[in-house]
Every structure is written in C-alpha cells, then in structure tokens.
Amino acid sequence: MHRMGEEEVTRIERVIDECQEELEPLKSFILPGGGRISAQLHQCRTVCRRAEREILGLSRIENVGEWPLRYVNRLSDLFFVLGRWVGKNLGETEYLWQRGLK
Fold this sequence. Notes:
Layout: H1 6-20, H2 36-59, H3 67-89
C-alpha cells in the first residue's frame, strides 16, 4: 500500500504555484462557478473540504497520522486554483463577492 508523505504534498504545491503565476492575486472572495469545467473543479474542492472535516473527526478517535489531513487540505486548494486557472484560460469572467447592502 502506498503511503502519503511530503513528496505528494510538495507535488501538489508545485502545481498550485505554477498555476498561480498566471493568476491575479485575490483581493476579494470569488463566487465559484464560471463555465462547466470551472464549476466542476469548485465542486471538487467542496467535496475535498467535506472529506477534510471527516478526516479531522476520525483523527479524534483514531490515529490517522498527519498526512491524510494535510494532503486533502492541499488537494482542495489545488482544485480552487485550478478552477480559477481554467476559467482564466477559457476567458470566463471571475465574479467577486460583494458585501450586501445594510
């Protein structure tokens, strides 16, 4: 059985860094969506976040080690960045969250 480790996390972080080089820094929250592929990548991020919460809950009763949580956390970040990157490369508009009126 393959064990997760620093190498897998580092690989994900490299891809995140490469994609972010082509993206504008975020100055606001963005609304997930855009085109179909971008929306699906944002949905993948949502699933990873849910898995992250499940792993955290499991870690309170079982020794799961640090890598599953760390890996899934970085994987969810990768899906977020890929959603933005794909949207940019397909010419999709990135919608920024705006505070509602009081």
